[in-house]
Specification:
Elements: H1 4-7, E1 14-19, H2 25-38, E2 46-48, H3 54-70, E3 75-80, H4 86-98, E4 103-107, H5 129-138, E5 143-148, H6 159-171, E6 176-181, H7 185-197, E7 204-208, H8 214-224, H9 230-236, H10 243-263, E8 268-272, H11 278-287
Parallel strand pairs: 1-2, 1-8, 2-3, 3-4, 4-5, 5-6, 6-7, 7-8
The chain binds flavin-adenine dinucleotide.
Residues 49-50, 78, 80, 105, 107-110, 128-130, 147, 153, 155-156, 162, 165, 169, 178, 180, 207 line the site of flavin-adenine dinucleotide (FAD).
């Protein structure tokens, strides 16, 4: 199975996609429709997030394993340290290896329930993503990625210590990083410069989400950890009652963001798909990727 870093090409920008594990048979069908629609576009890799509960976690293992075995795609499984002992984490990593998954995104995860609540370490578990990177790396020939935060992680004291922690987890064994959502390219580029200033030049992939509805725009603000920029609100909010107009403007806005990122030489654009293919396909096609 190919490593994510080997799917990134220094000559051209590629794209990758992110799914979440389906919660029902209906969602499973929707997910697999999206997988099959995106497969012919040859994404660099497809990732599946890791949820908070036991059954959601089983579905991540099952879904990534199925992608490894039944498609031509390169899968990546996310893994978090939330509510897991080290023994349980070893077990999950073993399942990934057994089902042909060689790429793991090692993230700490947020507290279940309230993402801003207190982060409580499992008594026999890990505290930071850095330790998870080490654990995954020592358990096999995995290609490990980590999360990065262009606006700074909400729990960080200041941007500098946040980048220091990011660089530490990369030095612990990660080969690449994926950035949380943002809408202003400068915010992403500033993070990339800060990493470079610390001598860290692993691929940093921007997280991108096509803004198709006012609800998705709201989710954007939550995930990015920063308010939606006023110029974006001014463009999109007047179209809130016009679904087709909103969608077209949102897709155009994200296409323009991606064009700038491609001009800045990003190795790949990582699309949060919400398990749908249509908007991602549209942006990827607009960009000629
Ligand atoms: P860490 O790197 O451990 O950092 C957490 C906080 O601790 C930060 O403030 C950091 O600056 C600080 N810190 C780190 N190391 C140290 C140290 N040594 N000393 C002091 N402070 C330190 N969540 C899920 O539940 N499932 C997913 O599948 C998932 N996928 C994601 C994918 C991407 C691309 C991104 C960007 C996020 C994802 N998340 C996911 C969310 C993520 O788990 C949360 O944002 C979490 O709060 C941070 O995870 P992390 O890996 O960056 O943590």
């Amino acid at each position: 199975m190919t490593a994510v870093v080997d799917r990134l090409d220094s000559e051209r920008t590629r794209f990758s996609v992110e799914f979440f594990p389906p919660r029902s048979d209906d969602e499973e069908r929707i997910l697999w429709r999206a997988v099959r629609e995106l497969e012919p576009l040859d994404p660099a890799f497809v990732s599946v997030t890791y949820g908070a509960g036991g059954s959601s976690r089983d579905r991540t293992i099952r879904t990534t394993g199925r992608i490894a075995q039944e498609t031509t795609l390169t899968p990546m499984a996310h893994l978090t340290a939330v509510d897991h002992s080290v023994a349980e984490l070893r077990n999950v990593i073993g399942w990934y290896a057994a089902s042909g998954v060689r790429n793991v995104l090692a993230v700490r995860g947020d507290p279940p329930g309230d993402p801003n609540g207190e982060w409580i370490q499992h008594p026999e578990g890990l505290r930071y993503a850095e330790e998870l990177v080490r654990l995954v790396s020592e358990l096999g020939d995995f290609c490990v990625g980590v999360a990065a935060f262009p606006h700074g992680h909400p729990r960080s004291a200041d941007p500098d210590s946040d980048v220091d922690h990011l660089v530490r987890k990369i030095r612990a064994g990660a080969g690449f990083a994926i950035a949380q959502l943002f809408l202003q390219p400068e915010v992403f580029l500033r993070l990339r410069d800060r990493m470079a200033a610390r001598g860290c030049d692993v691929p940093l992939l921007p997280g991108v989400m096509p803004i198709t509805t006012p609800r998705v725009l709201g989710k954007f603000g939550e995930l990015a950890g920063a308010p939606v920029p006023s110029e974006v609100e001014e463009k999109l909010l007047p179209l809130a009652e016009d679904p087709a107009g909103f969608r077209a403007a949102g897709v155009e806005l994200v296409t323009q963001l991606c064009e700038r990122l491609i001009a800045e030489g990003v190795p790949a654009l990582h699309f949060y798909t919400l398990n749908r293919s249509k908007a991602t396909k549209e942006v990827v096609t607009n960009l000629g990727l």
